[in-house]
Amino acid sequence: DRIRLVENPSKFHGAYYNFFNLIEYVKNNYQFDYYFFCDQDDIWKEHKLEIQLLRFSKDEMPEMVYSDMSTIDANNKLIDISINNIMGIELPNINNLYFIHAYIWGCTAGFNHALLEMVPSVDIDKDYLYIEKLSHDNYFAKFALEYGKVLFCPEQLVLYRRHGHNVTTSHHFKLSPLNILRKAILGFNELALTHAGVYNQTLYMLKKASGKSPL
């Protein structure tokens, strides 16, 4: 009774399409105090929900809570104990959180009902070109940053599995200064495309917030 299998009825499929379809299903059929994103191949720590629920301020405003996490390989072997120690995902500067998409990871994120209610729905069939690259976690995070709060838990509450098939596998950790320079030079086109995608998501959010359809 606690598990529901939800089918994506549209002709568009993939991680982001499926997440947005599921979000709309929940929004139209259920009402809970809090909601949490989850990936099928990651592992939650035993007290993840308890710790994050205590982090919410209990205000009526829209809120999102995210946490630090550890990374593991396909065989559950620990790679890095803390993403925050490597990447610095705890950023008090909301502008950095808003405009850069490397800090709030959906598998660590939860949000309250106020945020679910105020985030505009997306039309998969109409906006499929945007949604193909529109990460659900950052879409929700932008609205929380703009209209409410984003709170951080320093505990590593998720074991994030690194493999060749997850959406964020292109992120690189522990880059030395030399490797950063090499990546900037040799991977310029990829870097430019990544930033273009980030800006496109921000523009989409702003247009949805203003009640306009994306261009």
UniProtKB/TrEMBL annotation:
Among InterPro entries, the record links this protein to: Nucleotide-diphossugar_trans
Name by which UniProt lists this protein: WciP
Q: Which organism is it from?
A: Streptococcus pneumoniae
